[in-house]
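User: Here's a protein and a ligand (adenosine monophosphate). What would the complex look like?
Assistant: Let me lay out the input and then the predicted complex.
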Amino acid sequence: MSSIAFAALLLAGCATIPADATRARYLMGTTCTVTVPAGEEADAQAALDEIARVEQFLTTWRDDSELARLNAAADDVAVDVSPELFALLDEVSSLAETTGGAFNPLVRPLVDLWNTRGEGSVPAQSALEAALARTNPALARLDRAHSTVALSRGAAFEEGGFGKGYALDRALAVLAQNGVGRAFVDFGGQVSLFGWSRGLDVAIAHPEQRLEPAVVVTVESGSIATSSGSERTFVVDGARFSHLIDPRNGRALPPRGSATAFDARGLVADVLSTALCVLGPDEGLRWADAHDVAALFIVPNPVSDAWEVRTSRSFRSHVRAIRLVAPNLTVKDQ
Ligand code: AMP
Ligand code: MG
């Protein structure tokens, strides 16, 4: 029997894996826990140091990071960026394009307008349209030959939808380089792992009771990211909104369950789980099947108080096993 690492969606810290050691640190606004074989604690610390390094150049919660300085640069000025930041923004922009704009790393003006980093507020339509115009992907010009980025008309990058996934990839790279045989890194709504040849059970939280596991999947390696519209919500005039924004119309989404993406790479899983949540289950599963993406939705059943689990075709081939562990949960076949 493999042990269960209660992981996704703020279920951090409940891994009960024998003969392993954990090290935890508060990073990127949440607790990150690294589990490695006992005796390799120094490598767990090195992985956390690597995440701290990524946070330092990527955070826009402070003004002095490399990304914050790029966002603050004058319109249309080509800014020299480090090869690492350039490669990351370039890849995220390409991934965003494949989602048809459901994921948009330039969503920042809308995040500010809806104040989803703060208490949340509902903007006037005219302000919404102005902010929406500033999220057009054409407003970020990435020059690969010179490793420069120029932003126009007050466009700005928002790292909230992809930073943790990238940081997880870097943490796993450090662990692998240091010769660690197996590791499990729990970063709140996303986990990454490798080396679990007998399989590790990872819990995906219930969208509305984040401390309750809803689905357990068994995997050997890879990354599992869950985006939940039911997390961090705010209410205005009786209407509930989430911190996820649909960049196609500029509106904060209502809470409507969660979307989970599995991918070999954390960056991809992070971007895709957010995109899938924006697309919703019908459009999201069609998109996932067309792009061979491993996706799982936990969404309210439209006619009862139960919840439905819906998966893309490739989800089951990417995980060894999948179990429903919460009551009131049914599988809906496509
Ligand atoms: P996640 O929890 O990974 O889905 O990321 C949610 C965060 O991504 C939000 O708090 C915002 O910072 C950012 N975000 C919200 N909507 C989008 C979107 N449509 N595309 C890209 N980033 C988004
Ligand atoms: Mg994400």
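Summary: Confidence is low (pLDDT under 50) at residues 1-16.
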